[in-house]
Structures are given as C-alpha cells and as structure tokens.
Amino acid sequence: MKRIGNYILYLGIVSLLLLTACESLLDVDPSDKYSTDTFWKTEEHAKAGLSGCYRALHPWRAVHFYEFDMITANAMPYNEANGTQAIGKGEHLSITPLIATLWDNCYTGIGRANTFLDHIDGVVMADDLRNRMTGEAKFLRAFFYLNLVDKFGGVPLITETPNAANHATLPRDTKEAVVEQILKDLTEAAPVLPNTYSGSDLGRATKGAAMALKARTLLYNERWSEAAETAKAVMDLNVYSLFGDYRYFFSEANKHNEEVIFNVESSLPDFQTTNDQDIFRLNRPAPLKELVDKYQMTDGKPIHESTLYDPEKPYENRDPRLHYSITVIGYPYNGKLITKQDVMTTGFGTKKYTTYRDDVEIPLVERSAFNAILIRYAEVLLTYAEARNEASGPDASVYDAINQVRGRKGVAMPEVQPGLTKEQLREAIRLERRIELALEGLYYSDILRWKTAEVENSGTMHDADGIDIVIRNFRPDRDYLWPIPYNQTLLNPNLVQNPNWD
User: Fold this and answer.
1) For 378-391, what is each residue's pLDDT tens digit?
2) Do residues 429 and 385 make contact, with C-beta atoms less than 8 angstroms apart?
3) Closest to 15 in 3D by CA, of 123, 124, 199, 164
4) Which residue spans within 35-79 are E strands per DSSP?
5) Is 212 helix (H, G, I), strand (E, B) or coil?
6) Count of beta carbons in the 10 Å neighbourhood of residue 4
7) CA 272/CA 252 separation, integer angstroms
8) What is the pLDDT of residues 446-490, one digit of tens each?
9) What are the strands, taking DSSP E only, across 451-500?
C-alpha cells in the first residue's frame, strides 16, 4: 500500500471514539498542524487521510490475528499477555486487555474511516480516484464493524465524524442493524474497487476483498444462500487461485501471491513483525495436542481409524499441512532437530508464518516484513462449500470446493468422496476449515457461530506427551458474547452490558 511520506493521521479521541471531550486533529507532518477545515483540500490530503485509515489495521498484524487461536483448543500462549489465556479459561473480565483493545482499535478505525468519508467529497481530485478511495474506506469501516459484532453483538453504530457531544452517550444498536450497515458498505464498495493493484498500491482493498468480506459476514450470520452466491462471485472473478506452496505461502518472500485477497502491509524498518523471531514464534501460539490429533493420515482417515497410524511414530504419514504449519519434537527445523527446549510450552511450535527451511540453518531474524493475511482464497472456497451445503445440501459444487483445498499442490490429500449426508459433509467442511486455516485466528469465530464452543472450549487440554496443561471453561449462558469493556460502560451509562456480565 502506498506510503505517504511522513503523513500520520491522528484523531484525538478519548477512548478512541465514543467517550471523548477532545477535538479531532489531523497530524499530517511532524512540523505542521492542520485543522479539519484547512486539511481536506487536496489529493495529497485525501491520500494521507486514507493512509491513516489503513494504519488502524496495524493491531491485526499480530494482536488481533493468530492471537484468537490461543483462546481455542488449537493453541495456547507461553505467557498471560493480552488475556487470551484468561478468556480460554473462562476467567476473563470486562477489563481483560484483549477485550478492551479490540473495542478501542475497531472504533479507532471506524472513526478514521468516518472522518475520511465525511470529507472526501470536498477534496479537489479526479472522480474515479475519489470513488475508489471511498470504496476503500467503506471496506475498512465494514471490516472493523464485523470484528466488533463478532465478539460483542450489537454495538453503537456510528457513520459520521467522531463528535463527543453526539456520540459519547449513544446506546447500543442491534447486531442486525450493524450487520446491515456492514453489508451496505461492502455492496457499495465492490463496484468502485479494482480487481488488482500493482507497485506501491499493493495491499489496498480490492473488489475481491469487499466481496470476500461480504461473504464472510453473510456466513457468520447464517445467511447461507447469499453467502454461497457471494463467495461464488469471488471465485468467478478468476483473479485468485490456490498458491502452490502451503509451507511458504505465509512467508515474506511470497506476500502478494495469487491466493492473497487482503492483508496488512508490513515493511522494514517502520512496520516490522516478529514472525521470524524464533523463541517468540514457536511458542506463541503454541499448538495443543487437540489440534495436532485432528490432522488426518495421508489416506484421508483420522488417526483412530487409519491403518497407517503408528503410535510409536505418530507424526508420520500425516496430512502434509501438519509439518508445514507446526514444529514437532524430533523433526528438523532451521537445520536442526527440534527439542523440548525449543517448544517449551506444549511440545509443539508454530512453523506457519516463518521463513526458515527445515534442512538449512540460517541466523535468527529478530524482525521481518511478513504481511498478515486476513482474507485468502482458500477461505472463500470453504465459505462457499459450507454455505452451499447448509443452503441446499451436498452437491457436486460443494465437493469440488472442498476438494480444491485438499488437492492443493504439495498437500494432495484424498478427496472427500461423494455420498455423504448434509450432516456428515458439514463435519468434513468444519474439520477442513480448522486444518487449512489453523492458527490464523478464525477458528474462535467459527466455534462461536457454530455454537460448539461450550464443547470445544471446555475441559482439559494437553501437551505433546498427553499431559494436562490447561483447563478451559466456557459458560454458554455468558461467553458467546464478550463483555463490553468496563471503562466504556463506566463512562457511558447507556451501554447496556451483555447478559450475565454484570
């Protein structure tokens, strides 16, 4: 995405949108201050403002990305930072950091997008560029709102420039109202966005990104026929395809590959990631045995059914995505065999998002420029498969979509054979989502919407040796929604708390 020199967008909003008494300021240069009356005049101003909207995505490079898998039976963190462990244990509170920061970061992005959209019409610039940038801002606003309703349910719906007098005491709108605004934004964004970008514009929201996010929104809200139709429209763009190397799909060298639909840009030295910092990456997220045991054998059968499974060599003859995504004790990584010291938390480590080869040792890299991939084509295929199956039951197109994912070059897992019932195919699709998208932060949203979290996230989780390592607890009367952050309800008495969180 184009970097606009030293331009930085700053909206001075206490609590980052809702509970403010400060004026909004745009700091577009360290040495120059502009008011909103003098700033929104030129194309350069508009580009700087939109860059600020994209900057609000930076927490999704790490904290709001794979972090969510550490709440599930897929993984756990090596420490208690951010509150993922507390949420997984059912010990979270309305002051838990991850809960408060998600709310704040989403409304930061929403406030910036709203400010941009309220001022872009007054900027002197070409209409086609104005329309495209408007679409980008609407996409971003929709993205932030979907993150909110996914975790909190209904939230205050604000579509105008942040204003303390008007917004500080707003009540919550219904989830349905917010979802309709998300869909409206994405429907309006898609026609004015291009299929692709090139050069310094790579990373901006595209037509496919708007349509794919719309498909995700519809899927999350069980609007099956619409979700399938929208996912199919993304497929029919013929812009995206499955990348041929699952292991290095997520590497810095292959960012912007043909499977990427939307990502958060990183660069050195300004916007770094720690994805190749070994001690950090291998143990956060630290995969759990509950995830590893779900990887099928190469014959397409689970470990408890396959004759290929050898309990003395439990990681042989497994779905290749296991060793592409996860480091295992006794197997090579970065030119050496992994030991317990490398993966101290659970005995498994996260290989996905790293660039090291198994057979060649290179010096550890403290910082890298990996792009966090938030939407990719494999998800669209699985969205289509799930939505189509739920809407009308198994048909050839459902099998084709899931088998495309399983048949990726270098993965080549056996096809899901036809003849399954709707319920059987549902379970196959859910497992495929868990494996294909493992450690990418989507599984938590999946078990919430499937209403399986009370089973998936309750009970004892285990390390590689089968030893009890953490007890997860999920209260179905409370935990399908997060609590509204305490500071928000304290300052705004009209924000009614979610059930059983008072």
Assistant:
1) 999 999 999 999 99
2) yes
3) 164
4) 75-76
5) helix
6) 19
7) 11
8) 999 999 999 999 999 999 999 999 999 999 999 999 999 999 999
9) 459-462, 468-472
